[in-house]
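Progress note, sequence design subtask.
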């Protein structure tokens, strides 16, 4: 098995939520799998939603291709089976700021003057370590492009206003990868249900911080680490009939955990991660 890791970051990012507000466009708090596959597709030169119709027509000319294999955009159809893992390079909470700007192209608005005022919620200085398994020809090609700093199209973070930076590329294989039976902590975003919290009662908050009650604020104990828990519903896949997002609750925390499923835990370098 081989695993490629790289750091993905930028000045801003915007991963638009589909539930549109007439005043403000909201962003997910972290990059999600579908957005990441879209960026991989840009690197490899695959078509997106705008080229989906022509892609399907070209595929249909091949009589050996079944209809069920052509209901997605090209990037998703070719990359959906890649196993990825996302590690936020903070506690999961990236600062968000609302940006206001004008869209003055003629077709932007029917208002007088044709000027549309846009308000978007942007992530500030986001950074993640991204891991993916190299298991087939497509993932081999993707790894080759990233290792050699090549890209067909410019990768960006959710929108072409936000260019993506890719650094610290590392290839792990052989003894660098270990499969663990269990672990008391996980360093990546993971799907709800994979793990359960030890000595912790969950509540109704979706995004929260948790502090240890017995911590003395004046303590000089350098071993004390503040506990946190980030939780959000993020897109995990596309629905095959409508191409709408399939959502899944994800968690990122440094609290004590125990495995609650048959998921495989990988130790890659100094990180303990799971793939999905």
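Output:
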């Amino acid at each position: 098995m081989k695993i490629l890791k790289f750091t993905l970051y930028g000045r801003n990012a915007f991963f638009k939520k589909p539930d549109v507000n007439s005043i403000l466009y909201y962003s997910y708090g972290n990059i999600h799998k579908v957005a990441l596959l879209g960026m991989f597709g840009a690197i490899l030169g695959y078509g997106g939603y705008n080229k989906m119709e022509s892609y399907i027509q070209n595929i249909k000319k091949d009589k050996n291709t079944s209809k069920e294999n052509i209901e997605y955009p090209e990037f998703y159809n070719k990359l959906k089976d890649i196993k990825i893992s996302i590690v936020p390079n903070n506690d999961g909470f990236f600062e968000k700021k609302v940006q206001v700007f004008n869209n003055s192209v003629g077709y932007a608005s029917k208002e007088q003057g044709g000027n549309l005022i846009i308000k978007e919620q942007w992530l500030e200085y986001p950074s993640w370590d991204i891991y993916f398994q190299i298991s087939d020809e497509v993932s081999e090609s993707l790894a080759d492009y990233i290792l050699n700093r090549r890209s067909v199209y410019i990768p960006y973070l959710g929108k072409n206003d936000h260019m993506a930076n890719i650094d610290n590329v590392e290839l792990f294989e052989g003894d660098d990868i270990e499969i663990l039976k269990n672990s008391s902590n996980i360093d990546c975003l993971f799907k709800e249900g994979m793990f359960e919290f030890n000595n912790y009662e969950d509540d109704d908050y979706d995004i929260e911080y948790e502090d240890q009650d017995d911590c003395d604020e004046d303590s000089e104990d350098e071993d004390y680490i503040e506990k946190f828990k980030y939780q959000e519903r993020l897109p995990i896949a596309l629905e095959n009939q409508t191409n709408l997002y399939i959502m899944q609750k994800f968690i990122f925390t440094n609290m004590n955990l125990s495995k609650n499923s048959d998921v495989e835990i990988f130790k890659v370098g100094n990180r303990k991660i799971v793939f999905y």
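Confidence is low (pLDDT under 50) at residues 201-219. Work on this subtask will continue into the next period as scheduled.
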